[in-house]
Amino acid sequence: MLEVINLECVRGDRTLFKDLNFAADRGTLIELRGPNGSGKTSLLRIICGLATPAAGEVRWQGKNIRALGEEYSGSVAYLGHQNGVKHELSALENVKLASGLSGCALTREQCQELLTRVGLRQQNLPALLLSAGQKRRVALARLLSINATLWILDEVLTSLDDTAIRMTRELISEHLENGGLAIIATHQELDLSVQRVQRIELA
Amino acid sequence: MTSPSMFSMFRCLIWRDLLLAWRRRTDVLATMFFFIIVVSLFPLGIGPEPQLLRTIAPGVVWVAALLASMLALGRVFGNDYEDGTLEQLLLTPQPLYLVVLAKVLAQWLVSEVPLVAIAPLLGLQFGLSQNTLWVMTISLLLGTPVLSLIGSIGAALTLGLRAASVLVALLVLPLYIPVLIFGAGAIESSVAGNEAQPYLFLLGATLVLALAFAPWATSAALRISLE
User: Fold this and answer.
1) How many structural domains comprise chain B?
2) What ipTM does the predicted assembly reach?
């Protein structure tokens, strides 16, 4: 489903990685590991389609993601270092607008349900007043609201507490069981009870 | 992607930007007061000579509109860039052209329409006739969307740079010159008692051109800036 072919990434005059190849099907978890500065975030941004690789290509269902364009971005959900949460809007408004912008507008009740699922009670407070972990939870609720096949998560567990980490693991497992695909860059152990795990080490 | 859902996403984005502008309304008010003050300083500084005021009015109003719209440019993509929502917008399943168009339209509604609405009142300070005030309003209505469209290219190119606000001015102000000439020209010819229509047609033509090309350029600039 997702194929990465001979990918090369250059930052400044430094080659971060070269001739990177892997492929994954539905239900697979790809764990991306490597020390700081090894190009994990760059790789994720290339797979999202936000950045262009120096060489090689990323294919989704056999087609280059550049050629697929919006069709591809509709099946991707990206959660990077930034949460993508608007401070002026409440958690509820954030999730509701994000779902509307991704083309599958949810009702207020559905958004409340998602936020309850990620354990956020202060749903009507401006996001500015939420803690870092709570904002991360809003971002997770947004992830659930977009209904994407491919989840691309960059250090998703940062600033989350123990309960939230457990919950995130459950969400990821569930996503994979439902035929989704996830790429996760992390330093922490994920310990997921998933059958198909692929590890990719960047040097 | 069906077109009704594309339209609803377009509407959703405009609604989001209007809501955000309402939550940060001081920003919007600041732009409007800047415009009011700059335009009002001239009659105060130059004195109450009606003929002179009528002569400088077209240039003053348009230069003030240009500067005020520059002030608002940093906000078109700046806030979304900082909190990561711009990345998310790039990853939504709609053409980037439409995302840009929705954002520029929202910016125009929020920052420029109030200027157009208040301009006739300010024109009274310069002793302009009613007919000229109409011409002024129409020229602003046609010209300010061009400012927003062209400005969005500069705003997208300078995203995340340190001296962004200065750089935007240097990039965008020269491109504003045609709008300034046609806009001020329309009011001038109306003050002189001539037909203003040719200038308004030219402004309309610039608007069509900007609508067709500026969002493409802005989309490309956004992709480069977010790389």
Assistant:
1) 1
2) 0.89
